[in-house]
Protein: Transaminase
Amino acid sequence: MQPNPFKLERYFAQHEFTARHLLCSSDPESMSIGELLALEPDAMDGLRETWLGYTEYPGAPALRREIASLYKRIGENEIIVHTGAQEAIYSFMNTMLTAGDHVIVHMPGYQSHYSVAEALGVSVSPWKAREEAGWALDPDELETLVTPATRALVICAPHNPTGYLPSREVFDAIVAFARKHGLWLFSDEVYRGLEHDPADRLPAACDVYERAISLGALSKTHGLAGLRLGWIATKSAQVLARMSTFKDYLTISNSAPSEYLSAIALRHTDALIERNVSIVRANLRLLDDFFARHADRFAWHRPRAGTIGFVRLKRAGAERFSAELLERTGVLLLPSTLIDHGDAHVRLGFGRRNMPDVLAILDTYLDATDTSTAS
Structure:
């Protein structure tokens, strides 16, 4: 099985650690190990005492208990810890789908949500977000996409790259559709908790549907991508058994220091969420002003959740604009061609503390190019 190259990741491999300024990062502001350990007294002693032998295959029981606390109906034995969310996506696709199956996938989206399935011989139908409706999904369209071969529906909520968050009514309709057709509902929830208004938070899919698989990770909500820790939570014994067996051919078990540090982070979920959402709210106020000033150049639908938005360019193509911006200013944006969505949009990240400085560089660049064009 050979998936297509992951275009977004190949782009970041080239530019993420060489570009002077990142304005497309999907993860929020991170922290040092020292800052994380400072959240609990004696945490450094615990790290020193962490045993560096193999860890338990599904994740340390103490860690899984902390993860289970994020859900209403999930116990520690209904969780499998993975090395990042990407491994969990890969495992689900390889264990629960087979050649000849069909899946419906929320798009535009994260490439592994569909490329892994396609490489397995699974056909994919895009369930397209509608830009004119603020990147909303229409549940009524699902009945036009389902076939006798459909086995799963893959969604991302809060959504990467648009920041769209379904209403509870739309979410319930999605669950009802999956239940009606007996589908697996793979729900990428790595941004859950980063709702800009906490009142908008949806239930985890695994808490409301017996065939749902909720994907979580510490990289987005907690801002701790370097811990490389993700998980799936599900009530399905079949999914748990198959994915556990498949993990024997992947990482087998996880990093002991990472699991120890991750448990600390999970015990302080509320504080880390508040930290990250406060940065997002401040940055969004700046973006509101920025896009108001440059309404002739960009179309912007303000996200309701997460740390990224999807911006339409009214003048240049996304690839050309992004390449010229990077060359002249060192500011990195992500063109929509890298997520198989035409050449008119860029992904913009607003979860970092330095965004005001980077946005000012972009502002100056736009003013300069306007002046150059006018002259």
In short: The CA atoms of residues 95 and 346 lie 33 Å apart. The mean pLDDT is 96. The first strand starts at residue 21 and ends at 22.
